[in-house]
Design brief:
alpha+beta, Alpha-Beta Plaits, 2 domains, five-stranded mixed beta sheet, two-stranded antiparallel ribbon, 6 helices
Length: 216
């Protein structure tokens, strides 16, 4: 006949094992729930700071990130870039909003590829901005960079079995200090609109803000 103490000890050990297993399962469930909540929080933060269509930072995130970059630049030259698409409304009207969305996505991808590791953002609608670092700020570099960006943006965009070309007006302006971002963007924006006034007959529209380059 089994010893009652042995039986009791076995039952106690089994109970301890079950309790330990249940605690471990609850701990794993709690860890999974925490990870899920953290992922949801990260997704919400990303959604709050990024454009849902293109995945680029939005206007608010652009100014926040740009302020940090300007503070940490350490005197390195920076260029503000502003661009928007010419007659973009006609794309939506003629080809539909789905095509318009694809155009915006393609423009965002090309701008990001042009900028590399630099900051670019969709400010809203068909308007984009960027903050580029460069080893030098002179007219030749800016004009060359503007041409390259315009040529990239004007390349055909695949739309199903066809393709579409769009042109962009681009403005660039040097950022002269951490507190001058808004001023530089205003000058780049003015340069962009002067480029837009050149006329739609040109394959791409570009104009460099040269007001702050005379002595460079």
């Amino acid at each position: 006949m089994p010893d009652p103490l042995t039986i009791a000890s076995g039952i106690s050990a089994a109970g301890a094992f079950v309790s330990a297993w249940q605690l471990r399962r609850r701990a794993l469930q709690a860890e999974a729930e925490i990870e899920h909540l953290q992922a949801e929080l990260a997704a919400e933060r990303h959604a709050a700071s990024h454009d849902p269509l293109t995945g680029l930072p939005n206007r608010r995130a652009f100014f926040r990130l740009a302020a940090t970059l300007l503070t940490d630049a350490g005197g390195e030259p920076l260029i503000a870039v502003v661009l928007d698409l010419d007659d973009f409304k006609q794309v939506n009207d003629r080809y539909g909003h789905s095509a318009g969305d694809q155009v915006l996505i393609s423009v965002a991808e090309r701008l990001a590829a042009f900028a590399g590791d630099n900051l670019v953002a969709r400010l809203g609608g068909d308007e984009f901005a960027g903050l580029l670092t460069t080893s030098t700020v002179d007219r030749r570099w800016i004009e060359h960079s503007t041409r390259r960006l315009c040529e990239s943006l004007s390349a055909p965009i695949p739309l199903g079995n066809s393709s579409l070309r769009v042109t962009a007006s681009v403005g660039l302006a040097p950022v002269t200090g951490p507190a001058q971002l808004t001023e530089a963007l205003d000058r780049a924006d003015a340069a962009m609109y002067r480029a837009k006034s050149v006329g739609a007959s040109r394959p791409t529209r570009q104009l460099v803000d040269s007001a702050h380059l005379a002595d460079r």
